[in-house]
Amino acid sequence: MVKLVLCLVLLVQAAGEVRNTWPKEYARRDAASFAAQFEEPSRALFRYRAAMTGLMQVKPGMKVGEVGAGSGALSRFLAEKVGPDGHVYANELEDKMLAYMRERAAKEGITNLTVIKGTPTSTGFDPGSLDAIAVVYAFSFFDKPTEMLQSMYVSLKSGGVMLVVDIPSEQVGSAMVGADADAVIALASQHGFTRAGENGVVPGHYALIFRKK
Fold it and tell me: Which CATH architecture has domain 2-212?
């Protein structure tokens, strides 16, 4: 219990720090190079897209959101799975990645994918509009995790699923990366989510499944 409280305190305290280091990274390279990095076939988060989709219980006709979609690899996969009667909404902060996702969707003829610019405190998704939300290696970069959890809660339909895939926290040089699963569970519980399961299907990551109460 003491460890859990400490982890939760550290996660909330981290919200006062700049956790999102991606803007500095994006400034150095173009979107295509990041897409190649994110979609490297051996990368676990790319290779196990089907497994993550299964954890979200995605079915044709569903409306699904992804927060911190990057190059849109998972969102494009989800768009295929929800089919023409479903829709996927890909949230991202970085303008060059937003443009990349839109251009690639148009090039590949994906018409059931909408790219949305979010903010550090909001998904940009309509209230009560989604059956499921994926947050894949993005939660630990939230500068405002409590506000983002509230926004995701509002975006989901009653009983909707939230999948959080991330890595345990560790010190790397002078920076703290990742977020402990127990702290994420505790914080999500405070914002109206119930843990529905946990899975280690993605190598090197934990996968937490929540439902909106």
Answer: 3-Layer(aba) Sandwich (3.40)
Type of residue at 168: P
Tell whether pTM > 0.85: yes
Phi first, then psi: what are they for 114, rounded to 5°? -115, 130
Of 78, 72, 66, residue with least CA distance to 152: 66
Residue 74 host element (H or E):
helix 73-82
Per-residue pLDDT reduced to its tens digit, 152-193 = 999 999 999 999 999 999 866 666 789 999 999 999 999 999
Q: How far is CA 200 from CA 51, 140, 147, 184, 206, in A?
A: 10, 17, 27, 16, 5
Domain ranges of the chain: 2-212
Three-state DSSP string of 90-128: EEECCHHHHHHHHHHHHHCCCCCEEEEECECCECCCCCC
Look at residue 177 and give its three-state secondary structure.
strand
From CA 6, how far away is CA 213, in angstroms rounded? 26
* 141 DSSP assignment: G
Amino acid at 164: V
- Distance CA(118)–CA(125), nearest Å, equals 8
Sheet hosting strand 130-136, strand order edge to edge: 113-117, 87-92, 63-67, 130-136, 156-166, 206-212, 193-199
Beta strands (DSSP E) in the chain are 63-67, 87-92, 113-117, 130-136, 156-166, 170-172, 175-177, 193-199, 206-212
